[in-house]
Amino acid sequence: MNTSVNLAGVVLKNPVMTASGTFGSGAEYGEYVDLNRLGAVVTKGVANVPWEGNPTPRVAEVTGGMLNAIGLQNPGIDVFCRRDIPYLRQFDTKIIVNVCGKTENDYLEVVERLADEPVDLLEINISCPNVKEGGIAFGQDPKAVEHITAQIKKKARQPVIMKLSPNVTDIAEMARAAEAGGADILSLINTLTGMKIDIHRRSFVLANKTGGMSGPAIKPIALRMVYQAAHAVQIPVIGMGGIVTAEDAIEFILAGAAAVSIGTANFMYPDATLRVIEGIEAYMRRYGVKDIGELVGAV
Predict the structure, then answer these.
(1) What is the pLDDT of residues 238-250, one digit of tens each?
(2) What domains sit in the chain, N to C, each tagged with a CATH number?
(3) Active-site option among 69, 88, 126, 128
(4) Can you tell me the distance from the alpha carbon of 203 to that of 158, in angstroms, rounded to the nearest whole number?
(5) Does 128 qualify as catalytic in the annotation?
(6) CA 182, CA 145: separation in Å to the nearest integer?
């Protein structure tokens, strides 16, 4: 039984990875999860300089999921390279670094800095606000998606995953734009924009007013978008959005995802990734699936 997947020449032992921002850079979960079992660890977003993030409160539980407005708080690329990469290198898993920035140059600085680091793939978070375009995310304009993808590909030594925003009218158009820019892989979906109000205090629950909605409630939307994106492009797609169980993950794979990321579920069940891996293996045994590739896009 073969569970390995090939993402732009990088072979993962299985298709299960962590979603950026929900697993730190691995150390926080090391005592709960055998990182050697994971296909890959996707780090929290890393910027060219430290980011403080948004004011608190910045996390709120909602029906079927959670809202977060962390604001991509991170210690910056220098600390990341010195502290987090050596930690992850101890394990037999692939390292995917999530890159964020406020301007094109911010992204390029991080990508160039990582060129000689022992990491396997770069995931570019284009849901970050484009400061020069008045705060609209790079990922909400197909021309901007294609442009920034092309610029990053010129500098990157590792294969590039473009992480798409769901806060768009046509996800297939964004997928095609990233592919046209030279993306090696796509990942989606990032969080949906949501809000919660405290009716007793008559105020917003999050200091930022809005936050990113994640968790089981968004799964049907994510599944539809992954299906559309996977059928719009020729490059591999990593699916995410509300995956909690192996059944959820298998739905995404059948819809066209070559691999999957587990996010919010890590907060509920620290071993969620391992449960999903074991569940996929059990499913393959049950239905006599010899290679996981047989399931990708099988619906």
Answers:
(1) 999 999 999 999 9
(2) 5-294 (3.20.20.70)
(3) 128
(4) 45
(5) yes
(6) 10
